[in-house]
Fold this sequence. Notes:
Layout: E1 11-14, E2 23-28, E3 31-35, E4 39-45, E5 56-66, E6 74-80, E7 83-91, E8 94-98, E9 103-106, E10 111-115, E11 120-125, E12 133-142, E13 153-157, E14 162-165, E15 168-174, E16 176-177, E17 180-181, E18 190-197, E19 202-206, E20 212-219, E21 222-224, E22 227-229, E23 234-238, E24 243-248, E25 252-259, E26 265-269, E27 272-274, H1 277-289
Antiparallel strand pairs: 1-26, 2-23, 3-4, 4-5, 5-12, 6-11, 7-10, 7-12, 8-9, 8-11, 10-13, 14-15, 15-18, 16-17, 18-25, 19-24, 20-23, 20-25, 21-22, 21-24, 26-27
Amino acid sequence: MSNLEREAVPTLCGGRGDVVGEPVRELLPPRRVTLGESTEVRRLLPSLGRRMIGAWAFVDHYGPDDIADEPGMQVPPHPHIGLQTVSWLHQGEVLHRDSTGSLQTIRPRELGLMTSGRAISHSEESPRPHARLLHGAQLWVALPDAHRHVDPRFEHHADLPVVTAPGLSGTVVLGEVDGARSPGTTYSPLVGLDVGLAAGAEARLPLEPDFEYGVLTMSGELHADGVPLLPGSLLYLGCGRRELPLRATSDATFMLLGGEPFEEKLIMWWNFVGRTQEDISRAREDWMNGSRFGEVHGYDGDPLPAPQLPPLPLKARGRVR
Length: 321
């Protein structure tokens, strides 16, 4: 999924200077953004005051939406550099196409992982016909400098490891949890876990004290470290935790996102993650000139034009509040 806002604002993120080095409970409110023709999302990262959680740099939550009589998700071809996209569904399907020639329908609890590296373009759409409901999350992972120019690729993993406890079942999306490791490729220490909790269940998830974490609530009502959470909310937890107490007041699902605080300072503008003004300017120019990013074949529509760059220079300043 893309950042489709017509007036793209640069986001300055990364660097350990503003990472909370102890446990906190910081509830991040969503910002509502319309994507494509009819899909509205709740944008939770980047937000005012919190730009990243580990290498996780972008989090959208959408649905559940009734799209029985709607086109559903329709995101035209658009470019990316310097990041990975993680497509994660609880309901519905998304048809992915990209400039490497990948064509894949992603279904609930299947991992669609696209590594942009030096340059890729892709589209996402609801298949025709499609399921009645659409519900999921789209996330970006920033690539560290040593890997941000890798060859672009797409991975689809339908069989992911699962961890269980009484009243809890968790699918390991990325990274490792309790000895279970996702087959998805990662380039920095991080974790993504999709968790289902039964109503009334209480559990404790093991955490890495050197990681910072956040909880994205997908459905139902739960308490994470005593904080009540509703769907579409993101609770930032900071670092220094060895476990996370959980309690579900109804059947609930959430995503646990975590990782080592990202050391490098970044510029995130539109669909690009770079280090300098030149990185971003060159990527925009290449996209508009039809070079470097390849073509997405089979999508019924034109590619997205890039917004105009802001008049002021783009600078990487770290995690500014």
